[in-house]
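**Entry details**
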Amino acid sequence: MAGSVQLRAEPGVRHRLAALAEKVEERLGLTRSGSREEDILKAAAVLARENNLSAADFLQNLLNLPPEVAFPEEFVSALTVGETYFFRERQFLEAFRTSVFAGITEGKKDRLRIWSAGCSSGEEAYTIAMLLLRDGLHRAGGDISILGTDINSVALEKARRGVYSSWSFRGMTEEEIGLFFRKEGVERYSVRDRFKKAVQFSRLNLADPEWHLWRDGGAPDAIFCRNVLIYFADEKRNDVLKRFCDLLPAGGLLVTSACETASFTFDGFVPFHYNGAVIYKKPGGAQRFAAELPALEPSYPFGDKEPKA
């Protein structure tokens, strides 16, 4: 903290920091706050040293960027370090699983598209693949295509590799780890090919005016955006939620996090309550609920330690 105070006291830093926080909110959607300024200052200090610049000069360089030139990826990555792990908030995943037939796959036989928006290092996107392929839900809806997007290029590279340490597995059982991963070495596990093939990743900024998702221009049947919107300014968050609603088909699903369902309003969506979790559905489409869904048969024994890749 002492270093931060000293940096703020340097000539030209304080007002440039405030101006850059405003520009970060405009470009990335991240809300202005004291903690956000602190993150910006820490990132600027590190990158300024690497470029042999003063903090004030580095901040000014970022302020001088024209609208068509993006922030340096190293700067964006430093501001968007995500906290995530596999099968996070299981009750929301179970609510999604029990809603799939009712909200998505009924009457849709070609492809099931799911967008993990703000996927960080990929744990959520792979979790969705594991959930659907394990339970055989894909058999009712054709092929599965899961797209994970994030603004953090460093996190996306980790996601594409699909190799994780035990920190990403907290809350998972040994049986689940053996089912979904191959052990590659000490504290290193890779996602099995069966699940990895269902997922692709690309860089996307939710605050951009246009979103480019699947190459064929298709839209998602469900959107996961969890623990992302809590960092957005109110106006940007409401804009993103409206665009989610416009993008989804009738009956499409939006899955957020517990803190977001408790804090925000979701205009245009109908809440679906299941076992303490709330997910959101765009009105229309199939109207059945979880109690009416058929029992799901696992596509192979859940405890199998050596399934095919």
In short: The radius of gyration is 21 Å. The domain at 90-292 is CATH 3.40.50.150 (Rossmann fold). Residues 287-308 have pLDDT under 50 and may be disordered. Residues 34-50 form the longest helix (17 residues).
